Amino acid sequence: MSKEMSFPVVGCIGSEHRDAAQYHQRWFVVDAKGGWLSAAQCPGLAGVSTDVRMGYLVLRAPGMLRMDIPMDVIEDDDSVRQTAQVANQTVDVVDEGEVAAAWFTHVTGQPSRLVKVHPEAKPIIWPAGD
Q1: Overall domain count for the chain
Q2: CA-CA distance, 15 to 7, in Å (whole number)?
Q3: SS3 of residue 106 by DSSP
Q4: Partner of 16 for a Cys bridge, out of 3, 21, 79, 128, CB 3.0 to 4.6 A?
Q5: Domain that holds residue 43
């Protein structure tokens, strides 16, 4: 029996891990202006694999060291809270920090940041095909 794929990071390779479904589309990558970067805009994203292991989102990309992001962090630090744009929607997000930003900047070839949808944010309507 085939397992269901979940995509914790929008535009990246999904995970079949049983715990990944609860994190489906929780993270996405934005450009320097806070606009969502799709895999169509940044083909490097399609080479990033995601997995869920022991409370961490595990990211791998060709030629890069593995990066582990803690998944269940309490979002009480307003200094990392911001907004991002997904199509015509403004989304409340949490920035995952400088290490993740440097990692995704290398993967995408442009200034990029990894953000997580804030737990209190409204659901995002993702454009078809991404």
Answers
A1: 1
A2: 6
A3: helix
A4: 3
A5: 20-117
For residue 85, is it within any domain? yes
Tokens of 96: 């995952």
Residue 122, domain member (yes or no): no
* Token pair belonging to 87: 């199509």
* pTM of the complete model: 0.92
pLDDT in tens, 2-32: 568 899 999 999 999 988 999 999 999 999 9
Give 19-72 as a DSSP string: TGGGGTT-EEEEETTSBBPPTTT-GGGGG-EEEEETTEEEEE-TTS--EEEES-
Q: Kindly report, residue by residue over 31-90, the tens digit of the pLDDT.
A: 999 999 999 999 999 999 999 999 999 999 999 999 999 987 766 677 788 999 999 999
Q: Please answer whether residues 6 and 14 qualify as being in contact, where contact means their C-beta atoms are separated by less than 8 angstroms.
A: yes
